Amino acid sequence: MLKILNLLILTLLSVSGFSQTPSVQPKIMVVPFTKDGEDIRTVLDNDVNRRIAITKVKEGFDNKGYTTVDFVGKLKAARDNQVFTSDNQTDIKAKIIEMSGCDIYVIAEVDAQKNSSGTSVNVILSAYEVSTGNSLANKVGSSGVFYTDDIGKLTSKAVERCIDEFTTTMMNKFVEIEKQGHSVLVDISFAEGSSVTMTSEFGKDKIALSDALENWFSEHSVNSNYHIQGTTNLKMIFDDVKIPLRDSNGNVFTANKFALTLFKFLKDIGLSPSKEIKASSIYITIN
């Protein structure tokens, strides 16, 4: 009877999606949190606690069988190859993440507190999808209060207390995205003086551009899952388009790659588009 009960519980947990496994294991990179004025290229050099934090989080994923990418190694490779062309911290972080080839990056922040009651450390973990920057999970782990000056040991304890729940939340969200696609916004408009509008006819069937675009989005979104916020003669906004997590080669399918596919389609039907991508938002201007 006990065996039957246990089997029933496991079945219910599986159906409810309590513990889901992606069809392809994502690559994960742990990145140190940086404050205003700090350089992500040097932030680990003089702070052993941050090094401990990202190492312990990385070990947590390694122990669960996930593929991880070493941040320090990628940073060194970027330095050696002189890929940094500016001191803009946002650009530097984006370049390191891009070079990593990871699907998810996790930012680890360490907050140590010391007073008359003792010393404690909070570790704040935040996971993001690389392709869109959308949040996957957030969790704070606390070491508890101890009479010690060993911040590194407290940091390890804080990570150990939150890594399991954090990973479960992150992976359940990742599996959901893998099945349903991730969301991008696409804003299509016309440059001033353009002779084309949404009612201009294209293709063999001579259908309006707005109809041609909707047909294209139906074919190129996951399960034809898209939503049109509105259409006018001079603008069309798809405010939620589900695009695949990966391309046919198994590589991360980013908003930029999706924009390039749309760009080529517009070129193929005789238009002259330009594009701009900001995180998961795509802006197409037809000249």
Q: What is this entry, summarized?
A:
The protein has two domains: 21-179, 3-Layer(aba) Sandwich (Rossmann fold), CATH 3.40.50; 181-286. Helices cover 38% and strands 28% of the residues. It has helices at residues 2-16, 48-63, 71-80, 89-100, 151-180, 209-220, 255-268; strands at 27-32, 67-69, 104-115, 118-129, 135-142, 182-190, 201-202, 207-208, 226-231, 235-243, 273-278, 281-286.
Q: Note the main sheet.
A: 5 strands, mixed
The name CATH uses for the topology of the largest domain is Rossmann fold
**Strand-residue proportion:** 25-35%
- What is the count of β-strands? 12
Structural class: alpha/beta
**How many angstroms separate the termini?**
71 Å
CATH architecture of the largest domain: 3-Layer(aba) Sandwich
- Which residue ranges are poorly predicted, with pLDDT under 50 across at least 5 consecutive positions? 1-18
The domain count comes to: 2
Q: How would you sum up this structure, described in words?
A:
With about 290 residues, the chain is an alpha/beta fold. The chain folds into 2 domains: about 20-180, Rossmann fold, CATH 3.40.50; about 180-285. It has helices at about 1-15, 50-65, 70-80, 90-100, 150-180, 210-220, 255-270; strands spanning about 25-30, 65-70, 105-115, 120-130, 135-140, 180-190, 200, 205-210, 225-230, 235-245, 275-280, 280-285. The strands form 3 sheets. The chain has a 5-stranded mixed β-sheet. Strands 9-10-6-12-11 form a 5-stranded mixed β-sheet. Strands 7-8 form a two-stranded antiparallel sheet. Helix 2 (about 50-65) crosses helix 5 (about 150-180) and helix 3 (about 70-80) crosses helix 4. The radius of gyration is 23 Å and the shape is elongated. Mean pLDDT is about 90; it is low at about 1-20.
